[in-house]
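BUG: 3D viewer hangs when loading the predicted structure for this chain

Environment: internal workstation, default settings.
Expected: structure renders.
Actual: progress bar stalls at 90%.

Input used:
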Amino acid sequence: MSTHKHTDIGREEELPAAIATEHAGSIDDVPQLGLVAAIASLSYVFWVVGGMEMIERLAYYGVKAVATLYAKDPVSKGGLGVTMTEFGTILATWALVQSILPVFTGGLSDRFGYKQTIAVSTVVKICGYLVMAAFPSYWGFFAGALVLAAGTAVFKPGIQGTLVKATHRNNSSMAWGIFYQTVNIGGFLGPLVAGYMRKMEWRYVFLACAGIISINFLMLFVYTEPGKAERLARAEAEKSAGVHKKSLVAESLDELMKPHVWPYLLIFSGFWFMFNSLFDVLPAHIEDWVDTRDIVTTLFGGQGVESPIVKFFIVMNKDGTEILPEGMLNINAMLIMLTCFLFAAVSGKMKAINSMVLGTLLAALSLVLSGGSALGWFSIGAIAVFSVGEMLSSPKFSEYIGNFAPSDKKAMYLGFSQIPLAIGWTLEGKVGTKLYDHFASKDTFSRELLVQKGFGQAAADAVPKGEAFQKLCEYLHQNPHDVTAQLYATHNPGMVWYIMGGIGALSAIGIWWYGQWVKKIIK
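Structure tokens produced before the viewer hung:
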């Protein structure tokens, strides 16, 4: 199969042939180097940019891992005290800003330099965290999330564009796998920091994240932009030739309309719907319904844990008897942090489409499993299955689009990779949270049971948001675990996850279809 051609930068007149040569990408699978050879071939710049991404993700997931818990926590405990549906409005808007802007900010990185846009994005992200800390309210967090989203949108294309420029087709599978591994080192450490800080006060979470992301200013001193000389030479040649460039918006839209680009982005949105449910909805499900005492008993005995070090790394409650939701979710980051290079080697031996289909199916299965039981160990198993699916599919998605992007539009195309995230995360932010409120809201079920037990409708309505379950336990004179078991037995919280898993299965079918279809149109 021959390489599909991509048009060069929009122009009214042609550049000299040496400059105007098109550097098209390809959808063809390329044989990959072996595990050791691939790792040894990775450049200095690759490791620097991986470190920058790790730091950024540490700060980002410090907030993302606990945002749902912060929203659900009652105002009396320092939280926002809102329903999942109300929080879903923040999530959906956050998703749109963070995921749509890179479609256009990616082009900024290509034109003006990766280093400059990374520096600007770091300043913007610091401001987002500080706004969250300074204004502990629904609208304060909303504003901070939007600023953070804008900073992330500027940050991503420059980092990922650097990665593509610093690697080649024969080591790209391993490069994206290890890059994803460094992402999850940050993703693992972030919730540890957040879990510790929120036990003192919620605003310390945001202040800590602002301090962490500022470390990237130091990383910029040792960062060297790959391909900078070529970019500057090209810009000078275009200037000398009097080339008139299209606007970034027009140029981006032209690339998006190519027939092999937009279907790929649309189909993969189902995966991101599932992925974001893991961080936006699953923390609420674990907090409300999953009993983690069986895990603690198996590992440490029935008396729980006294060691503050163990409590920190596992992210446990103050008594050391239960694992907090962010600790459970951290299993995902931990597994990827430790094993992603191995799964990168496995996926490197597979066709890209096959790896993505298998990974998406495993992720869908894991969500179905999440709804199947309230046992802690069962939940860990479901998260582990999701992690394997994620490692087989998510890095391959970025690698695939980075490979078929034209060489002078790498950051732009990797900005496009945020479009499925925009679609999936926005829909999940609204649909997922509404599904949870309908099928699994512990607060709603507690209010209903209070009324059934004679508490009175008016009195139940007067209970502050997020405090109905505590009031029910007091009213029934029962411990929280027994009341939770009673509510779980009379409702079906797992339905949320069966629906989510079904969406993932449809996405896997779509990815398989794309793989068959694209072979016919790319000649």
